[in-house]
Amino acid sequence: MKQLLLSLMMTVLLMGGVSCKEKDTAFHIDLVKYIENSYTQSFEESLQEGLSAAGLVAGRDYRLKTRSAQGDMSTLSMLIDAAESSKTDLLITFQAPTLYTAIQRAPSVNKAFTLLQNPFILGAGQSDADHMARLTGMYLVPPFEELFGMMEECKPSIRTVGVIYDSGNDDSVYRKNELERFVNARGMQLATVPYTAQHEIATAAEALMASHPQAVMHLQDPAQDVTFPALFKNASRRKLPVFSVVFNMERIGAVIACSTDRKEIGDQFAQMVVRIVQGADPSLMPFENDRALRKRTGYNRTVAADIKLTLPDSLINPAR
Predict the structure, then answer these.
(1) Of 268, 275, 24, 280, nearest to 134 (Cα)?
(2) Which of 24, 52, 121, 180 lies 20 to 30 A from 10 at CA?
(3) CA torsion, points 282, 284, 290, 291, in degrees to nearest 10?
């Protein structure tokens, strides 16, 4: 009898222990990057700051897991599969290859994307408001209009522009095509050289010089931190200017860099994520972009003087 009572008491205690165990109510976020660069680092910082500013505490209100495919597509697929199988509450995708893979392999997971230009060519939807379920995000639009306005004021005049792009990345191809549209509209010519992997970038940058461009354009894409040094090295040897739509590139050699402030874009995207963590449905959230955000223009007088390029007076002396 005593043994029976003891067994019953142990059962009650064990059941009580199970019921008293705290349930994990934190919101689980998986952040997957195709490759790391200066933008992914800045956006991660903005995300952490945005969650904290909203009063959300890591470990209590949310759990954030960050992983990078290091530019490898097979690794990227495995990371997306892992997020899908873990039934994460939100999958954040940085860069076009990550969004495309997530659309294909994790349709049942809520997703938020950024750091790409055109989500629609990746299958994300028809418009900002008409998009696939379980998905929202923010895309970046290069300020070609503003940058070309300044390029046209430079002396000597520029009639041929060169660019390299990732032919295996639909978003990069789209960006190149958009650039070509702007170039053609101004009666200029565009010389292009594709690459398909990071180890081909140096060769592509050198091959571009064979087209004898009068200037080089640096585009924003996952490999932007690798493409700029390669382009600048080859352009500098030939005293050619490099223009960029990537934040802060004037600090390392671009004669003019025009972009949306990287921090402002990251902060806006962070607010989208905060709304989802607090209960918003990504399916009902329109896509956003950075068109309305303030553009920042920087220039490098030292490089311009070295290659004998006269920068626009409207840029150097904006108060006049």
Answers:
(1) 280
(2) 24
(3) 160
Instruction: Indicate which CATH number applies to the domain containing 161.
Output: 3.40.50.2300
Determine, yes or no, domain membership for 211. Answer: yes
Which H or E run contains 68?
strand 62-68
16-43 pLDDT per residue, tens:
544 444 677 899 999 999 999 999 999 9
Q: How confident is the model at residue 318, as a pLDDT?
A: 77
Going along 183-316, which residue ranges are E strands?
189-195, 215-218, 242-244, 256-260, 288-289, 295-299
Q: Cβ–Cβ contacts within 10 Å for residue 92, how many?
A: 28
pTM for the model stands at: 0.90
Token digits for 300?
């490098």
Domain boundaries, position 301 = 144-260+295-316
Distance CA 122, CA 272 (A): 21
Beta bridge partners of 2: none
Report the b/e string of 45-63 with b at 16+ CB within 10 A.
ebbeebbeebebeeeeebe
Into how many domains does the chain fold?
Answer: 2
Query: What tens digit of pLDDT does each residue of 63-88 get?
Result: 999 999 999 999 999 999 999 999 99
* 3 state SS of 218: strand
